[in-house]
Amino acid sequence: MPTETLMMKVSNIDWMGDIPNTWQVKRLKYVMDNYDYLRQPIDASQRTQDGDILYDYYGASGVIDKIDDYICEGEKILIGEDGANLKMRTLPLIYIASGKYWVNNHAHILYPKNDNNLHFFAHQI
Q1: How sure is the predictor about 55, in pLDDT bands with cuts at 50, 70 and 90?
Q2: What is the CATH number of the domain that holds 41?
Q3: Residue 118 and residue 31: Cα distance in Å, rounded?
Q4: Which residues are 108's β-sheet partners?
Q5: ∠ CA 86-92-108 to the nearest 5 degrees?
Q6: In this structure, how many other beta carbons lie within 10 angstroms of the beta carbon of residue 66?
Q7: Position 118 pLDDT exceeds 80
Q8: 88 domain-assigned
Q9: Mean local confidence (pLDDT), 31-47
Q10: What is the pTM assigned to this prediction?
Q11: Residue 8 belongs to a domain
Q12: What letter does residue 44 receive in the DSSP assignment?
């Protein structure tokens, strides 16, 4: 069975090299919506856990606590922006949050425009 040859083109990005002819190179802001305006840090001593339902509280390295309120809902890509994990890389820097949850100011919140594949973008980033 013959194999189809994939046509390539120059990406004009040194570290990327050639890319498939059908791909486009775009800045992240043109393919993702940024929801950083939702981020709200809450000091550990002020996080209440009195409610019947507790939600994940995300920071730069994933879930770091539980809280009885939420500010985000649905699947979103979270990207840790600081902390020891940026150097050590012992935990993922990018993860997908789902359900109802709270995000502090140490993780960026992104969602693909035009209902593109969230998991694909998380993997590519």
Answers
A1: very high
A2: 3.90.220.20
A3: 11
A4: 79
A5: 70
A6: 15
A7: yes
A8: yes
A9: 93
A10: 0.81
A11: no
A12: G
